[in-house]
Amino acid sequence: MKKLVGIEALAIAVPRRYVDIEDLARARGVDPAKYTSGLGAREMAVADPGEDSVALAATATAQLLRSNNVDPSRIGMLVVGTETGVDHSKPVASHVQGLLKLPRAMRVFDTQHACYGGTAGIMAATEWIASGAAAGRSAVVVCSDIARYGLNTAGEPTQGAGSVALLISEQPDLLAIDVGLNGSCSMDVYDFWRPLGRREAVVDGHYSIQCYLDALSGAYRGWRERALAHEVVRWGPSLPGDQLSRILYHVPFCKMARKAHTQLRLCDLEDAPNAPASTAEAREEQAKSAASYEAQVASSLGLNARIGNVYTASLYLALAGLLQGEGEKLAGQRIGLMSYGSGCAAEFFSGVVGEKAAKRMAQAGIESVMAGRERVSIAEYERIMNLPYEAPDQIAPAPGAFRLAEIKDHKRRYVEGAAS
């Protein structure tokens, strides 16, 4: 019998403050519809210097272990996917291991490839377990990032921050991954990058969108070839992509998911054998099906719209949002996931939603995490954005959460909120 491997449970952490996206639009003299309808945004998480990628990762991981009664001695790998690391040498994962007092007998490292880094970690962990090398142990993969473009920039309304921690094991209650069906595509491009010493990224926006769509085409076609060979999907009355119950996409902004879904459908329409003759324009119009988007994609974007861009965590926020709302309904059904990281790399993979998905999502306590946030004014948001990264406000962290307290002699000191 083939070994099942995948995501057993997850937890999220987000900054304690956010701005309403309409407030930001009005402050910038922009029609709010440009941000709400044009980008699909509702709220935007605001991270202060004390809520760095380490603090967010440690908070999410602590919640994951606590809410699922995970025995730390059974964890053999800890990976953090991030593009907002805090040191050129010491990984975020090492900080998390120390803060949570995890065992020494572990493989601990970070993965970096822009927004793809978290998926790289998940695949490393999944294949480590599937190979038998894990010897029954589990892995924790954390996607933790802060998307920062700066005040009054074109990218300002697509900022955000947060962390998603995932338990990878042989008990995939959330999602049993189809190991070996992955499709990948990578290219050496300059669509988005952050030179050393910069807090803000540099992005060629229109080019980056095209790179995303090109990489998606290659990754999806690679997955589809393997899925057809294993009869997971078939050419027939419905397109292969339509045979997935839901499809999740990397979400730098919510409207990108619509563009991505159109491109995926276009791949199927262009490649379908024995398809009736049609023009490229007719295929593109058919690919834009609003019904397909609403049925397969729209229900996954609720958390992304309220938190913003979280780089490596964006795809897994979409997974959390989907399973929070539809975990019970989707049990036993196959979904697709599309990961993209600038620079660039893409991977399309699939998996079957577990029968216990709804129960596991209830344990994640996402509603209470979101309810605990504070809406702040644009003036307060701008004050936070102007704070130096090395001098965090002295704020007591919430119970069970972590926070950067100071940087002294180039060493970072974190504090944990006292239990209530």
From TrEMBL:
Name under which the protein is recorded: Hydroxymethylglutaryl-CoA synthase
One BP term from GO: acetyl-CoA metabolic process
UniProt xrefs under SUPFAM superfamilies: Thiolase-like
Similarity-based family: Belongs to the thiolase-like superfamily. HMG-CoA synthase family.
Keywords for this protein: Transferase
Matches recorded under InterPro entries: HMG_CoA_synt_C_dom (IPR013746), HMG_CoA_synth_N (IPR013528), Thiolase-like (IPR016039)
One MF annotation (Gene Ontology) recorded for this entry: hydroxymethylglutaryl-CoA synthase activity
Family annotation (PANTHER family): 3-HYDROXY-3-METHYLGLUTARYL COENZYME A SYNTHASE (PTHR43323), HYDROXYMETHYLGLUTARYL-COA SYNTHASE (PTHR43323:SF2)
CDD domains on file: init_cond_enzymes (cd00827)
Ranges where the Hydroxymethylglutaryl-coenzyme A synthase C-terminal domain occurs: 176-277, 288-387
Name of a matching Pfam family: HMG_CoA_synt_N
Keyword set includes Heme: no
Domain Hydroxymethylglutaryl-coenzyme A synthase N-terminal residues, every copy: 3-169
